[in-house]
Amino acid sequence: MSFSFWFLAALLILATLALLLWPLLRQPRSGAIATQTTLLREQLDALKSAHASGLIDDASFQTRQQALSNAALALIDSPSSAPPRSTLAARATALILVLLIPLTTLWLYQKIGTPHALAFAGISTSATPDSSGGASTSNAPDLAKAADSLAAKMKDNPDDGQGWVLLGRTYRAIERFPEASAAYAKALPLIDDDADVLTEAAEALGLSSSPRSLSGEPEALVDRALKVQPDNQNALFLKGLARAQANDPEAAETVWEQLLTLMEPGTPAQTAVVEQLNVVRRQLGKEPQALPAMPTGTPAVATAPAASAAPAGSATAAGIDVKVSIAPEFADLIQPSDVLFVFARAEAGPPAPLAIQRLAASELPRTIRLDDSMGMIAGMTLAQFPRVIVGARVSRSGNAQASPGDLEGLSAALDWRAAGQVDIVISTVK
Question: What is the pTM of this model?
């Protein structure tokens, strides 16, 4: 947060205190009954204002009000007994105001403001490219350096739970999973249980283990997240994945079926979950579940623009253009009912697609846009994983899960922000 913010905030607090404390602490003129009475009235008005604002409770208000009433009666009975300075009640009220106003201001800012900005301005987990298609140096700082800078600042603020969460997310975005897991481990004891944070911590811990697994402590964190928020979609996905990794396909099937009921029908995210579900259904000897119908007009599953309409070589902060073609020797193998899936998955991370598009294979060649809105689960998007593998698969069954006889093409691992566009040639048979 900039110095100007602190300066203005301090000025506002001082001005508020001055307006409230001046009538409380101003010394009256000795022997002037009218002046003393005015002062007492001002103190009573200030007391009422503080009570109406909730700065003091009813009991304190009644006590202070009675003290002011007694002082007024004493002044009338014996003008010479008027104290030469403000009363004890006035000084006590002033002290309460001095303590409560700054503390209340900071508390409110912590609840409804942007507290991360106080110490971590400029830290971002996603880059914003400039108009030329590259990453903007002003909006996309080197996240590794940003993470190291933030880690250094946390040494001076070890009790800042939200700061540790921010550090964990920054490490997670640059795939430094052990450091991310360590940051989340320091954050969790300092904050109230939050389903999203618990799920992120579980994912980071699982990705930092060798071999990568959600068994044990990661799954326990997922269970805590689901206890806080039973319908958290990210937590439900990871719970199903943990059960699948534990060779418990029945439990994975149950969890993912629950997740599907919470998702928007026909979206790529729901389609991707169905495909994960079908993997465990096959293990159970069950028929694969049909892919959800694609509702007309749903942006996430809308047909990608034609190649001529897609700007080649241009990337935004949220996506990458994928030019898909098929090798000439395989062109005659395409059937009218075949389905084309274009997807991006993390080079090092969960197997679920970070973005996916589904359209008719007969429309090849095409240029398809994969963007940050097409993530399968919240927190698992292109923005969270700088390096991805982009692929295209022609499916006979209509299922994006690879099956024998499917046609496929994959890219090498790449930085999707820097690439802007990638060419995929479907040239292999599964």
Answer: 0.44
